[in-house]
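User: Predict structure, ligand 6-O-phosphono-beta-D-galactopyranose.
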Amino acid sequence: MSFADGFLWGASTSAYQYEGATTVDGKGPSVQDTATLAGGLSDFAQGSDGYHRIDEDVALFQQMGLKAYRFSVAWTRLYPDGVHFNAAGLDWYLHLLDQLQAAGIEPLVTLYHFDLPAALAAKGGWADRATIDAYLTYVRTVFDAFGQRVTYYQTVNEQNMVLAGALQQVQAGTLSLQDAVQGNHHLFVAGAAAINLAHAQYPHIKIGPAPNLVAVYPLTPTPVDALAADTYDALRNLMFGDMAAWGRYNQTALATLASAGVHVTITPDDAAMLAAATPDLLYFNYYNSEVVQAATNGPLPFKKVPNPTVPQTEFGWDIDPLGFYLTLRQLWDRYRLPLMVTENGLGAHDTVVAGQVDDPARIAYLREHIAAMARAVADGVTVLGYNVWSAVDVVSTHEGFAKRYGLIHVDRDEQGQGSFDRLPKASFDWYRRVIASNGATLD
Ligand code: BGP
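Assistant: Predicted complex:
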């Protein structure tokens, strides 16, 4: 197996999960800061204290040999209320870029990772078209401030999971289905506008969206289950990939929404904006595969069911590296866009024993997934980089701090108690060897 010279071996974090310091230097609240979390779970107030420990972390990234570090900019540091600019919030990111440059690590910047300014959410969030303009103002600020120092940008992290979150609000009765889907459309337009802005005015930038993609299997070989899997795939994956690559809706997805009574309003300007926005590459996050079967008793013709044939993580996520291989080659065959894996990793209850964190399950997961990627590369699929989620332990979006993904352990508990000291895990050394061999050594 061989990866190209310059392959970007990296690791990821996101602002609200990593930085902490949620009221420092003028930062405003995002929807993550104001979210109601399940009882007992950590909030995001402290994160991994990354805001105060970034120099130490970058030094560890350099020690690990990372070629890339993928992080997100907190919109609410730059625009605390979504409207007014806060220069103090920018300085921290400029410092981070200095540190990465000195360490020879390529920055991969996510412009929007689940952390809409709460002030914009209060005005209707993505269902309100004004949010598109606010996003573009923020994006332009980032492009201008980061200048030539950043080449790789993701417009939106996991828009399909943003929609999934909105659908949960629909179930809870706090959002209409129409607003959820129209909000998703506005987010498509916002991402397209950011791509078009980059291409028109910042030609060095390589930009695209970063959906979360899964391999989808029918539970049985019956035609009804195959159809259900295909419909689910259209709504879960293809709607987001097709919009990215071709600037138009997947027809099966639109038809399925229409049969649930939802019609997306697409203005002529929207259609032109979407059609013009061709990404330079397709970033995506992959964790698992999913199984569906036909359903006849709900608004949608499918339902998700467990897969009895694959192992699971301690947190019940299916482990399926073959699904990763399948996804990589399907994406390449369908879109012919260079790919970059922005997240892949395993969440576990890691513990420190005698001053060490042994995480063989994580190493096995990463090894199998990198081997699957190598197989796709050997087939001729173009993959520019691969990023482990996560560089250091961060607060999980839904499962608190007990669910750890990091290559570097952070000494803190669910209540935010601890020294926040860093401790490289066994996977850190393993990944260092992988990177040093450019993916040739996975043992
Ligand atoms: C992705 C997100 C990340 C991260 C990861 C792990 O969906 O982009 O922000 O949270 O999933 O998910 P979780 O923390 O829910 O286990």
